[in-house]
Design a protein that fits this description.
The chain is α+β, with helices and mostly antiparallel strands. The chain contains 1 helix and 10 strands. The longest helix is centred in the N-terminal third of the chain and has 24 residues.
Length: 130
């Protein structure tokens, strides 16, 4: 009996693992949060001069209100030692961001997006795409 359960577990576990990985990687075509390119830890993304930017500093998003055109890239930078995330409309687009990390997000459709940090509930911002 024990061998039967063990064999079933050997067959079921890989299927569950594959399905779980596929679900985690799936993009779903929703446009609610635009498109993100994360670079936590890589240090390779530089914020172009004059580009729309939101800084994570002193446990706040600065500025906390930003207006851009739909399709514009917005740069999020962590300027402090605290770990932060960029979560837009409930979807974490950044993973964990350490000091110096930059995440680039492209505003989707014209609407107002809610930005939060998963670790610091007091960190809130809005991005209005027109």
């Amino acid at each position: 009996m024990k061998n039967g359960f063990w064999r079933a577990g050997v067959l079921v576990f890989p299927v569950v693992l594959i399905v779980g990985v596929a679900a985690a990687c799936g993009g779903g075509g929703d446009d609610a949060s635009g498109d993100a390119t994360a670079s936590p830890g890589s240090g390779k993304v530089e914020v172009p001069a004059g580009a729309p930017e939101i800084d994570q500093d002193n446990l706040a998003f600065k500025p906390d209100k930003l207006t851009v055109k739909a399709g514009d890239k917005v740069y999020f930078k962590n300027s402090e030692t605290a770990l932060h995330t960029v979560t837009i409309d409930g979807k974490n687009i950044s993973g964990n961001m350490k000091k110096g990390d930059v995440v680039v997000w492209t505003a989707g459709t014209a609407k107002t997006y809610k930005v939060t940090c998963d670790y610091h509930p007091q960190m809130n911002a809005t991005i209005t795409a027109q």
